Amino acid sequence: MKQFLPSTILSIFLLFAQQSHAQKAGLPYNRFTGEITQTKFVQTGQSREKSYNAIKAWIVKKYPNHRQLIRIDDAGSGQLVLQDTEPISSAKFKSFSYRVNIDIKDGNYTCTINTVKTLSPGADSYVTADQDFSNMGMYGQDIDDIDREISITKDKKELAKLFNERRVLTSFLRDYHKSHYVMDLHFTMIQNGIYQSVAGAGSLAAK
Question: Among 17, 49, 115, 166, whose Cα sits 20 to 30 Å from the Cα of 75?
């Protein structure tokens, strides 16, 4: 029988304990790695070439700087990959980057948006967002712990300190949810735009 180390058991326990807070954001993510990934498989009922041309035309129209963003453009294999960034207006985040991977075949295509990273104010580089949901879970757990302390604390100075700590953590948690909400809207817009471009090309596209 496979043996589990105490650290592994603790990690699993914390993972499930944090989910009630982490799952409030609408973005789909891997609950073990935290990787944000949105994937859509669409049946088109049309040739790879026709779908490719329709999707490429949408990208060119949507992204005026598409030449700088497209990383892979292979009509023969039906592969389109682009990398872009979008701003976020919050105290904790400045912008986020993401990768759009489109695999087009005869009769269908798959669009996956992943490699999501965030840039904090004052930071020089983007860092992976894989830890977002874990951090959200920990902030939420800390807030729950503070709430319990508040309920039993009588000292006014200690209460003031606890309430201040709670405001800070709540602000961090709010920024995470706000940034993920913006990401979710943007990624859904991309998925819908690609879908509509193919559907408008006279396909039998169905989600």
Answer: 115
